[in-house]
Fold:
Amino acid sequence: MQTRSAFLLLAMIASCHGEEDLKLPDPLTDAQGKRVTSAEEWKKEVRPRTLEFFRSQVYGRSPAAPAMDKASSSFTPREMPGDSKVTMTDCLLKFPAPKGELQIKVCLVEPKAAGKPVPLFILINNRSPDLATVDPPNEFWPAAEIAKRGYATAILHVAEIDPDKNEGFKDGVHALFDSAPRQPDSWGTIAAWAWGASRVIDGLAGRAGIDPAKIAVVGHSRGGKAALWCGAEDERVALAISNESGCTGAALSKRISGETVAVINKAFPHWFCENYKRYDGKEQDLPVDQHQLLGLIAPRLVYVASAAGDDWADPRGEFLSCVHAGPVYRLHGGAGLENETMPEPGGHLHGGRIGYHIRPGTHNLTLVDWREFMKFADGKWK
Ligand code: GCU
Structure:
């Protein structure tokens, strides 16, 4: 018993020590090292610099948005098997590109007869491309349940934008938009997916029945990294939702817990820009950390979800990122997290502009997660 208490005490000291040691950049400090004191100053002095750092050193630079070719894009309604309360539409969005045309297939599910425009959840799908059609529906995208709760939802498979392969950036949007040679800050695959979600917003925000002021972009794991980057880059995103996005998503890199920068760059060399590899094993040299990525979304809504058994994504690091993004939200006059005590598995914090929950169990996007996202959105939007 004594040994066990001594061990617990040591473990507590070790973990507290770890967090005290965590030297994070101040999300409110400008280039001269001066702390800004107003939201206007932050927007002018800090936000562009922070965004530029993430662009040039982490995710890479995405091309300017092409104007959608509205005349040749199409929206084809289809029966939702066995469900008369929702409608399904196959959308084909077309965009001119320097080397051809980008065509994006998206499946949209909407509540029938909602009576007013509804919010939209766009899922960046990094799982099977047939999730839009499987019967029974998969929890990863419970479209009918989402629609019955009064939301529209669209699913974008990542390969519509850029296949998740390390093949030298020869296919997907790279083949259509990139000019050779690649630069150290050329966009990687995660940035391409984020940019792709923005093209879905181009296609759907103007649709009758969709409320363009209430668009959420959701992603799980690698898709969650992309959802957060989309929220940072595209101010039309009213709510960015990261489900267990971990390293270079919501989790703090400087904690060096779970997956690290060197490990992710080695396993997935195509996800980020070439410059990011400079920080392999050198997280302390990163002038930013991921709480500043969340801060870039302020004062818009951001949501971070963790799973208790998902050590690879570092749940504690994901939570602390929310805590340390708090000053940016407070500067804008609202709360970040409702409070700064990490909930027990099964708990959530939905009171502030930053939402958080931690689900018992392992790495996945489940109905439990979706119900939490919708509860949070209900509280903000209904
Ligand atoms: C790997 C990778 C993670 C990623 C995850 C996923 O585990 O290391 O960074 O989030 O795949 O996308 O499921």
